[in-house]
Write a structure and sequence with these properties.
By secondary structure, the protein is α/β, with parallel strands linked by helices. It has two domains: 2-126 and 189-329, 3-Layer(aba) Sandwich (Rossmann fold), CATH 3.40.50; 132-188, Orthogonal Bundle (Histone, subunit A). 52% of the residues lie in helices and 12% in strands. It has 13 helices and eight strands. It has helices at 15-26, 82-100, 114-121, 132-145, 147-157, 159-162, 170-183, 187-209, 222-239, 241-246, 263-269, 279-302, 317-329; strands at 2-9, 30-32, 55-57, 63-65, 68-69, 106-111, 211-219, 308-311. A six-stranded parallel beta sheet has the order 5-2-6-1-7-8, with helices on both faces. It has a two-stranded antiparallel ribbon with strand order 3-4. A hairpin with a 5-residue loop joins strand 3 and strand 4 (63-65). The N and C termini lie close together (10 Å).
């Protein structure tokens, strides 16, 4: 059966470089499941792969540019939900397998957005119908009291989900709270129940979709990962992050921009902000918030026992991953 190789992991762990090399080795293409790299307007702050990073150079110096899908595919003015991504990405995967027409073919899915990867591999949780009144009320509270008020409620009522959720994303926070308020039960409990149902139907889903998934997590020692994150943020600033965000100020209220790296610069640029911060503080805030985000990403992935973990700080990790994949596809 055809295989979808999932390469996941925290931000800055080294997914892009590995996927480019794997795609060259297996003669395949890469599908991005990074929920911010979809957007044309967001490049520097999302660490979007450059043409150079998407090009593999062989030992005899022959370059090969690897096709990456869902990079610059959408606009922030038309945000892509995880549900929409599931439909679009599955249609793309089906088309790629058909047009490539290779026996035992593989494709690579990569990113750090656990929800978007789950959408492809497992589908979505079944949640009971909820009155739109709950969402309308929460959106009013978001406008009147701000996101932190809703985050505090989520942390109090469902600390388990709050520990792994992207708390900078108002859509995720509101989704969890509308379930909590309407049902009286924790969102995390619904997810546990649906996980059992997904495990039962996994084989049926794979047969329906026509491919199996092989899940791989890239990991590094925490201090090494944090150093890479800190350096990446400095590189973003050097490459023009502040200028990129300046050009997006009129869209600051759009949901794709309510994310680490952009919110901190919006705060820096906000002339009406009473607690005015300088660039040094903004950089420090981005680094700290990105480290926290990486921690939540790893918490999410650890709950999925289907992943096989590889320490990419080891010298032979690429050979180990290639051997692992070849063993499963042959």
């Amino acid at each position: 059966m055809r295989k979808l190789i999932v390469i996941a992991g925290a931000t800055a762990v080294g997914k892009t470089a590995l996927c480019t090399e794997l795609a060259a080795y297996f003669d395949t293409e890469v599908i991005s499941a990074d929920s911010r790299q979809f957007y044309k307007e967001m490049s520097i702050g999302t660490a979007k792969p450059t043409l150079e990073e998407m090009t593999f150079v062989s030992e005899n110096n022959t370059p090969k540019t690897i096709k990456h899908h869902f990079i610059d595919s959408h606009s922030i003015q038309n945000p892509l939900s995880a549900g929409q991504f599931e439909k679009e990405a599955l249609a793309l995967i089906d088309n790629l397998f058909k047009t490539r027409n290779k026996k035992n073919d593989i494709l690579i899915l990569t990113g750090g957005s656990g929800l978007f990867i789950q959408a492809i591999c497992d589908g979505f949780d079944e949640i009971p119908p909820i009155s739109t009144a709950f969402r309308e009320k929460l959106n009013q509270e978001l406008e009147q009291k701000g996101l932190q008020s809703l985050v505090a409620e989520l942390q109090e009522k469902d600390p388990e989900y709050a520990a792994e959720a992207d708390l900078n994303n108002p859509q995720r926070v509101i989704r969890a709270l509308e379930i909590i308020r309407s049902t009286g039960s924790n969102y995390s409990e619904f997810r546990k129940l649906n996980k059992k149902n997904r495990e039962k139907s996994k084989q049926e889903r794979e047969e329906k979709l026509g491919f199996e998934t092989i899940k791989i997590i890239l990991d590094r020692p925490r201090e090494e990962l944090y150093q890479r994150i800190n350096q990446r943020v400095l590189t973003m600033i050097k490459n023009g992050l502040v200028e990129e965000v300046k050009g997006l100020q009129q869209y600051a209220h759009f949901s794709p921009l309510k994310t680490v790296g952009y919110q901190e610069i919006f705060e820096l640029l906000d002339k009406q902000n009473e607690e005015k911060i300088n660039l040094e503080t903004a950089i420090s805030n981005i680094q700290q918030n990105t480290r926290r985000f990486a921690k939540r990403q790893l918490t999410w992935f650890r709950k999925d026992t289907a992943y096989t973990w590889f320490d990419v700080s080891k010298p032979n990790y690429k050979k180990e991953i290639i051997a692992f994949i070849e063993n499963l596809i042959n």
